[in-house]
Amino acid sequence: MNGLLRLTTALALGVLSALPAFATELKIGLQDDADVLDPAQSRTFVGRIVYTAMCDKLVDVSPDLKIVPQLATGWKWSDDGLKLVMTLRDGVKFHDETAMDAAAVVATIERNMTLPESRRKSELSSVEKVEATGPLEVTFTLKKPDVTLLAQLSDRAGMIVSPKAAKELGANFGSKPVCAGPFKFVERVQQDRIVLEKFKDYWNKDNIFIDKVTYLPIPDSTVRLANLRSGDLDMIERLAATDAQAVKSDPKLKYEAVVNIGYMALYANIANGPRADNPFGKDKRLRQAFSLAIDRDALNQIVYEGTAVGGNQPFPPNSPWYNKAIPVPARDVEKAKALVKEAGFDRVPVEMQIPNNPVAQQMMQIVQSMVAEAGFDVSLKSTEFATLLDEQTRGNYQLSRSDWSGRVDPDGNIHQFITCKGGINDTKYCNPEVDKLLNEARASTDDAVRKQKYDAASVILNDDMPIIYLGHQSWIWALNKSVTGFVPAPDGMIRLTGMKKGG
User: Fold this and answer.
1) Is-contact 139 83, C-beta < 8 A?
2) What is the mean pLDDT of residues 460-467?
3) Which of 194, 278, 401, 495 is packed most tightly, with the most Cβ within 10 A?
4) What is the spatial distance between Cα 452 and Cα 459, in angstroms, rounded to a whole number?
């Protein structure tokens, strides 16, 4: 959709969805369209932004990355680390007016663990069983200690859905999702809009000041900003770094930014179906050469105006979990050429699928040019982001650029992508030694022990290189001056609690 048409659509939408004068609507521009709106099945970052308004979790993450109460008001671990007992908030209702209680939590967790289409299985793989040990008390019994479970419950695995709706809709739950968040689902038009309205019986309704929220997917960052400036949007996420100064100097707009806890990366198809059967997927020397041919600092300066940091691991260099013994590599074209030659090639053809947003496209065009000097002939295949993820899942790719928004616990940035049966291991990389290290890291409550395990795994992964890490972005938002109460958080979520929109 071109810019003019997008603007026209947004204007038409504004007229069609006109609200009474007293109602407050917040229109938010997203970089991508969300995939299926079922917490058990989805995997997109923008889907998580929508869930933040629609689906409360057992626990949430604060701006300083602490686990805080949401649907659960308290929790405690048993001394042996094999039981987690959670106390639930009283009087909470789902959007269909049924009760959010211990039975509902058990039904949701079991659904996440057993639904054939669920992507939450690996996140909950340590759970032996979950039981209602009281009307508002839930007990998780684990197969082995798993310190990461609480962090998993702060995201999609811990979003509690209406058992009634889940039973009625099954795998089609995403067509009419029913959760217990501040806003309930109204409608969705693929590639155009997702509309939610305030839930009048929300447990924290006194801190919700928006009546309706409409999310509009607009992949072009320039068009997103144009819509914000014209007043057709109230807020946009992932402002292009090149537009930061323009927003800062616009008296009608506000700029907010924070370094994120995720990463930008390239996924190599190692063993995911027939398309893995190519030199790049089979020979780690070619992947190492590809990585060495990239100037990460230059990418940061050219594409992100210095707002990102170069990276080569699932954790940013300023993270306590980063392995300092493997620093971000400087560009070394000669060494890259030598590795290509050692692998028996002069030139290596590589098809790379990339998201259809301008920032990612610019970045990968620069990478395409950089690696060409080392012997890689890269063809770029641009596609809508939800489609890109679907192709990754099915193994219909050779090399794919995909970002991860990051998780508060280090396990969330690595385990499900790299372990043999990881829920989003699209490369199908499988190394029993890496599995052993990452599973041991999950089981320890001692951060020093966990750090040793992650460091050891990073050495192996830096050699095998199923994922080529490029760096770590800042989340950047732009808002109309009339929008107040937004608190930027390193997880990139837009929490509407406390947000207001003036006249």
Assistant:
1) yes
2) 98
3) 194
4) 11
Question: What confidence tens digit (pLDDT) does each residue in 32-84 have?
Answer: 999 999 999 999 999 999 999 999 999 999 988 889 999 999 999 999 999 99
Q: Tell me what pLDDT residue 8 has.
A: 42
The pairing of beta strand 235-237 with beta strand 59-61: unpaired
> Maximum distance among all alpha carbons in the chain?
70
Confidence (pTM): 0.79
CA distances for 280 relative to 158, 289, 438, 458, angstroms: 37, 10, 26, 20
The pLDDT value recorded for residue 18 is: 43
* Domains of the chain, start order: 3-54+181-260+475-501 (3.40.190.10), 59-166 (3.90.76.10), 263-472 (3.10.105.10)
pLDDT above 60: residue 234: yes
Query: In this predicted structure, what is the pLDDT of residue 9?
Result: 45
Q: What is the pLDDT of residue 319?
A: 87
The number of C-alpha atoms within 13 Å of 404 and in the hemisphere containing its C-beta is 29
Range list of β-strands (E), 153-226: 183-189, 193-198, 212-217
- Count of C-beta atoms within a 10 Å radius of residue 259: 15
For the cut 50, the answer to whether the pLDDT of residue 354 exceeds it is yes
Tell which residue, 88, 201, 66, 193, has the closest CA to residue 136.
Answer: 88
Residue 340 parent element (H or E)? helix 333-342
- pLDDT reported for residue 243: 94
The torsion angle over the Cα atoms of residues 335, 336, 337 and 342, rounded to 10 degrees, is 90
Tell me the three-class secondary structure of 397-422, residue by residue: CCEEEEEECECCCHHHHCHHHHCCCC
3-state secondary structure 440-482: HHHHCCCHHHHHHHHHHHHHHHHHHCCEEEEEECEEEEEEECC
Q: Is it the case that residue 503 has pLDDT exceeding 80?
A: no
How far is it, in rounded angstroms, from Cα 304 to Cα 312?
Answer: 17
Backbone dihedral angles phi then psi of residue 480, each to the nearest 5 degrees:
-65, 145
User: Token match 């920032």: residue?
Assistant: 359
- In 3D space, the residue among 110, 141, 95, 102 whose CA is nearest the CA of residue 40 turns out to be 110
Cα 361 to Cα 17, 46, 223, 352, 395: the distances in Å are 33, 19, 15, 11, 21
